[in-house]
């Protein structure tokens, strides 16, 4: 099994009706993915508390997020990248103006343990 993450970016504000229907559609997607034998581990991000970068030797703090549309993450394991891409492709957020990225990920702990 390999580890994957879905990263969601919103592109527009939804109407109250869309928000309600999106919840129904996402619940159906979760059921469909669960029936594939895949357990989902979602995370919804709150407001950005701090945003730091380096400017030469100085640490700079900026207000707000560098990407205010970045709000949700879903972690999962899958036996194949094809299945992971399918899971992303069938996410209903795409019909509600979201973009969905799918990435394979590894833990940096494994790299640290080999050094």
Characteristic terms for this protein:
two-stranded antiparallel sheet; alpha+beta; 36% strand; 4-stranded antiparallel beta sheet
General description of the model:
It is a single chain. It is built from three helices and six strands. It has 115 residues and is an alpha+beta fold. Strand 3 (51-55) and strand 4 (58-62) form a beta hairpin. The longest helix is centred in the N-terminal third of the chain and has 20 residues, at 16-35. The protein is flat, with a radius of gyration of 17 Å. The two termini are 24 Å apart. The mean pLDDT is 91.
**What string gives the helices and strands in order?**
EHEEEEHEH
How many angstroms separate the termini? 24 Å
For the biggest sheet, the summary is:
4 strands, antiparallel
The geometry reads as flat
Oligomer description: single chain
Helix-strand makeup class: alpha+beta
Q: How much helical structure, as a percent, in the residues? A: 25-40%
Structure summary:
The chain is 30% helix and 36% strand.
Protein topology:
Elements: E1 2-10, H1 16-35, E2 40-44, E3 51-55, E4 58-62, E5 70-78, H2 81-89, E6 98-105, H3 108-113
Antiparallel strand pairs: 1-5, 1-6, 2-5, 3-4
């Amino acid at each position: 099994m390999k580890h994957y993450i879905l990263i969601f970016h919103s592109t527009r504000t939804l109407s109250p009706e869309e928000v309600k229907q999106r919840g129904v559609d996402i619940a159906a997607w979760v059921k469909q993915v669960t029936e594939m034998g895949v357990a989902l581990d979602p995370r919804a991000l709150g407001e950005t508390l701090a945003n730091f970068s380096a400017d030469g030797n100085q640490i700079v703090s900026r207000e707000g997020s560098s990407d205010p549309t970045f709000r949700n993450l879903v972690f999962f394991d899958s036996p194949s990248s094809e299945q992971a891409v399918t899971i992303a492709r069938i996410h209903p957020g795409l019909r509600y103006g979201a973009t969905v990225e799918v990435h394979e990920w590894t833990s940096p702990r494994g790299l640290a343990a080999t050094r």
